[in-house]
Design brief:
The chain has 3 helices and 5 strands; from the N terminus they run H-E-E-E-E-H-E-H. The protein is an alpha+beta fold. Helix 1 crosses helix 3. The model has no long low-confidence stretch (mean pLDDT 85).
Length: 114
């Protein structure tokens, strides 16, 4: 039996790998500052990142969009706990490839840790 992974989750992990490579040179310590988790909203299955630096906090989730082949990123300034906010959903950012999505997330990381 062959176990298959959801295509959206595979793409989310590719974005995560690109982020990890980019932040390696930032001098950012992940100890206590960040946490990667799962994200699921219907057909969107991906990953989330919780970031804290001092009083700054940001939560991001990314997955392959349910309505296209784009990568969608949702951003909240508070931990959404169970589900993303309507505002975050309405303001989702769409990217055509994993590198562009990772670049956006790295820019947000820089913004939070600055």
């Amino acid at each position: 039996m062959k176990l298959r992974t959801n295509h959206s989750l595979i793409r989310a992990h590719k974005v995560k790998a690109l982020i990890a490579k980019a932040v390696a040179g930032l001098g950012f310590s992940s100890t206590g500052n960040s946490r990667i988790g799962s994200y699921q909203n219907g057909r969107e299955q991906g990953l989330s990142l919780s970031l804290r630096c001092g009083i700054k906090y940001c939560w991001l989730a990314w997955a392959e969009a349910r309505c296209s082949d784009s990568i969608v990123i949702y951003r909240c300034e508070l931990d959404p706990m169970q589900s993303i906010t309507e505002e975050a959903y309405q303001n989702g950012m769409y990217f055509t490839d994993e590198q562009a999505a990772a670049d956006y997330i790295v820019d947000v990381i820089r913004e939070v840790i600055a």
